[in-house]
Amino acid sequence: MRSKLPQNKLSIFAVMSKMAAQYNAINLSQGFPDFNTDPKLIDLVTQAMRNGANQYAPLAGHLPLRENIAALVQDLRGAAYDPEQEICVTVGASEALFVAITAFVHREDEVIVLKPAYDTYEPTIELQGGIPVPVQLDAPYTKVDWDAVAAAITPKTRMLILNNPHNPSGMVLKDADLKRLEELVKDTDILILSDEVYEHIIFDAQQHRSVASYPGLKERALVTASFGKTFHTTGWKMGYCLAPKALMAEFNKVHQNTVFCVHHPTQVALAEYLKEPKHYLDLGSFYQQKRDVFLNAIKDSRFQFKPSEGTYFQMLDYSAISDLNDVAFAEYLTQEKGLASIPVSVFNKDNRDDQLLRFCFAKNEDTLLQAAAILNSL
Fold this sequence. Notes:
Residues 25-372 form the Aminotransferase class I/classII large domain. By secondary structure, the protein is an alpha/beta fold.
């Protein structure tokens, strides 16, 4: 049998979570909370089921949900999207990313990917016969070298993928970043695929700057978002995509032939839940408190760190503790010390090792303090 992804291996998230279970380790590897969502949201889903929302939803999603998404984006980003023709509800942001790449990347097209990068981008590009063009950021990956990005652009560049806030570093792009990108793609046919799933998880009074807020980017951008990340429901796999009418028409052709539509009662529930803005506006302070508990607890450890600006991930530099490569050190930490993390090299170009591990702090305080005790013991 000839594989379409011969180099693709089991996801590092699956590997480390399996190892965490095997060794009964605290799991700060995979990005999911160890606490439940708001009971009100669960009740709304149940109510929608009982009220009969159990058949196919419209292809683009439950219209009241799309209308409320449009209102949210207009309010927070100052960007207008037509809920009828420019918004599509998807099976999590993962489907939105897959569909966006599939719809627009042709064989031999080049796609610029800023590394470290989420590990589904490049395999999806390769499945379409496209060519990933990695641009490696320097550790700790909190600044984009836009000159390097400019140098990577060729006549074959079809798309550039952004992740903002950035996983795994927690970097939040600034106004100057988006304006420079806007200038770089001006007078080109380059599309922007902007993965903004952590858009509401921003710390220290910073602001999330979406590509949707910049006219020169919005006109060529597909923006993906995640209700799972926002409402602590990663297992529900609910997300959406924003794009101008012409791009969304092509997006929906692939979406239609991938899943057609998304879980109907959950869409009905989310439409109602979004009517209360505090459900997403309070998210930054909620997770900043968890970040600060974790970092305060390890401030006297031998790990070095820069506080995450966004997401619910924190990178730690262990170079003062061990000379092991990050995969080996992550395995040691899981097997011998009972704490699972993610080695960052797996997201880098050519598995570049900067001796950094990523830890998820979307956990209860007791879990974070137990993890901190282990880190302080090293």
